[in-house]
């Protein structure tokens, strides 16, 4: 049972990493790419960590895996703000749809 | 003589740091001496950086924030994954300026950071009370979502907004 849930979580995590990378390649400007990377990859990481944590036999090792999530989240939130702020300071205008 | 606020802070933070050490060493008892030293240093640093009693913090508020955060992370991740699969034609980006009601800097920074992980928004610039956001789709009800997050953060820091 645990094996099955873990496999599903790992696959779902992999899918979100795939979607995040797809967004990175497909989206038109730095700001939209940050949306794809920050959100999809963080959800992917959360699923993968949870999938690994439930396989662990010791509670401490499982908690250690879970703790990686908030650490990586705070790093990615900070870095994505830093990139967006720099892009804004350099005067990079967000991409807009023309057909509106 | 130490005040009771300081005593409580030492006990709570010490217990949390010990728990963290236990997790990091995966429950092994080999490095306990090193652990005591590390916990002592971390405790000292935490007391220097955050004076006991200077930050008002609510544990139930934290629990509510974590629940809200996880729910919205899932929603944000699914949403952006769907947009990525559809490609550029699903995008309708824009910018939005919002005025924050949070009064101290730490909650505002937490707000700007968290919005980068919430559905549809990335923080571009935080300037005092003003926060500029890049939104992935202007048709989403972004302003309402920003307010919902802000009220959770205010509750966690016991701020009245």
Q: What attributes does this structure have?
A:
heterodimer; A: 100 residues; mainly alpha; 3 helices; 80% helix; B: 161 residues; 2 domains; 3-stranded antiparallel β-sheet; 3 strands; 58% helix; globular
What does this structure look like?
The complex is a heterodimer of chains A (100) and B (161). The mean pLDDT of chain A is 94. Chain A is elongated, with a radius of gyration of 17 Å. Chain A is an all-alpha fold and 100 residues long. Helices cover 80% and strands 0% of the residues of chain A. Chain A is built from three helices and no strands. Chain A has one domain. With 161 residues, chain B is mainly α. Chain B has two domains: 4-49, no CATH class; 59-156, no CATH class. Helices cover 58% and strands 12% of the residues of chain B. Chain B contains five helices and three strands. In chain B, helix 1 (4-24) packs across helix 2 (32-49). The interface between A and B is large, with 45 and 40 residues.
State the gist of this model.
The complex is a heterodimer of chains A (100) and B (161). With 100 residues, chain A is mostly helical.
Specify the oligomeric state. heterodimer
Largest sheet of chain B: 3 strands, antiparallel
Q: Let me know the average pLDDT of chain B.
A: 93
Across the major sheet of chain B, the strand order is: 1-3-2
* Largest sheet geometry of chain A: none
């Amino acid at each position: 049972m645990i094996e099955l849930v873990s496999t599903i979580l790992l696959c779902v995590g992999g899918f979100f990493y795939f979607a995040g990378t797809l967004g990175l390649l497909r989206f038109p400007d730095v700001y939209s790419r940050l949306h794809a990377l920050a959100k999809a990859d963080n959800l992917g990481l959360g699923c993968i960590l949870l999938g690994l944590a439930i396989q662990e036999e010791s509670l401490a090792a499982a908690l250690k895996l879970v703790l990686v999530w908030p650490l990586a989240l705070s790093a990615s939130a900070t870095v994505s703000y830093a990139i967006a702020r720099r892009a804004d300071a350099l005067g990079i205008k967000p991409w807009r749809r023309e057909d509106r | 003589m130490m005040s009771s606020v300081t005593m409580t802070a030492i006990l709570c933070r010490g217990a949390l740091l010990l728990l963290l050490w236990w997790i990091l060493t995966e429950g092994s008892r080999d490095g306990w001496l090193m652990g005591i030293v590390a916990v002592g240093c971390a405790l000292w640093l935490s007391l220097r950086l955050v004076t006991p009693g200077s930050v008002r913090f609510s544990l139930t508020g934290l629990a509510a924030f974590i629940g809200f955060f996880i729910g919205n992370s899932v929603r944000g991740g699914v949403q952006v994954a769907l947009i990525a699969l559809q490609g550029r034609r699903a995008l309708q980006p824009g910018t939005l300026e919002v005025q924050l009601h949070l009064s101290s800097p730490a909650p505002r920074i937490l707000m700007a950071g968290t919005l980068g992980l919430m559905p549809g928004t990335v923080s571009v610039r935080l300037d005092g009370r003003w926060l500029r956001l890049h939104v992935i789709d202007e048709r989403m009800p972004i302003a309402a979502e920003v307010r919902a997050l802000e009220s959770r953060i205010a509750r966690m820091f016991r701020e009245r907004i």
